[in-house]
Amino acid sequence: MTLAAPPAASGASLWRHSAGDTSGAVAARAAMVARLEEDGALGPGPVREALRALPRQILMPQAYVRRSAPDETPPRWDLLDWARPGDRDELLERLHSGDSVAIQHDGEPILSRRAVPRRGGAMTAMSSTMGMTAGLLQLLGLRPGQRVLDVGTGAGVTAAVACFVCGDEGVVTLDIDPHVTAAARERLSVLGYRPATVTGDGTTGWAAGGPYERIFVSFAVRHVPQGLVEQLAPGGRALMTLGTSSPSWPGLAVIERQGDGSVEAQLRAVEFGHRARAGFDRLFLSAAFRAEITTAGGWTQRSRLAPPADTARGMWLALDHLYPGLVRDFGAEDLTIGAPECRSWMRVRAVGHRRWDVTTSGPRDIWAEIQDVAGRWRAAGAPDIFRIHFDADGSQRATSPNDALTWQLSPGETGDAR
């Protein structure tokens, strides 16, 4: 691991606005915060004050915007640059839209790069959607003077908020990519902050700065990294997205160390989660497979069993773990789920009062899998929150509150994000 220059004391009172924080940027930021409040994603408190103050164009003076259609290959990207006056309006709109913001292409150096179009490749670092980030930062419960470990630096937004609320002396931001940490170090310093900026594997944490009262992981893991649990201080809390190879049904792991040193953890079924790190093998439904599901024939049965509601998040979370390999097409008009590894799929369409046509194809009976888990989930009390157990042999499992529904958490790959 490599460590940045020694951190300097800072706090909310030392926040410095750059000369680049124009009236347009201030207005865009205020509008973004107002939308978050209106949507219920943000309430009064220090996170709100930090987001109102944070000049996002200082942390992200360049950002990518996709110019190609969603399924067009290779994808085409333009890099907007604050230094070019003609880009500023579009860049401000992008930074304050609430959507995720891509800041790095194929692991490139971020500082001093030319703002030229890119084709192909992948975006390897980004700032997450603001609604999710704001909600998680509020749940994290940041307070002045806390020691905070920000795992997965990205654009440095979480680190900046932690410095604003807690003071930068106890803040560590950690990323596997030296280009990401170098950019965050330089841009946070423009805001007057000197958190410890560390390059290394986020799943092992950084023991030298701990123990931490708060740990925030901004990429998905398959199970809770033990190294991060060990660095959690008594009274501390850690948050991270926990998922499988499917992006469709994430869980939020909330880990807390009690005053006596014991650890309690929950897995909460949520609508949105952080994306997986670069190199995390992920499933997806290709355009060709989606077209096949929409147009191809299959075996159709009439069912009086209703498909589980989208709001039955605990059921979908359990399905993802008990019958892995499924991906939902959320853009389809009907409930549509595919298993890309074996080309199985299912489509459910309402055809009358309490009647549905269920069309399936392939070796897996996805409808039967769904109904199996739905029945077990209801028998377990229809929970949306499960307990995470850390067993003596190092394995982890999730269970319903009444222990009627349980599954193992796969160790899989849990490396750092870009």
Automatic annotation (TrEMBL):
**PROSITE patterns reported in the protein's UniProt record:** PCMT
Its EC top class is transferase
What residue spans carry the Polar residues bias annotation?
396-411
Outline the segment boundaries, as ranges, of region: Disordered.
395-418
Q: Name its species.
A: Streptomyces huasconensis
- Keyword Iron-sulfur in the entry? The reply is no
Protein name (record): Protein-L-isoaspartate O-methyltransferase
Q: Does the keyword field hold DNA repair?
A: no
Q: Which family does it belong to?
A: Belongs to the methyltransferase superfamily. L-isoaspartyl/D-aspartyl protein methyltransferase family.
Where does this protein reside within or beyond the cell? Answer: Cytoplasm
What keywords appear on the UniProt entry? Cytoplasm, Methyltransferase, S-adenosyl-L-methionine, Transferase
Name the Enzyme Commission number(s) assigned to this protein: 2.1.1.77
Q: What is its main location?
A: cytoplasm
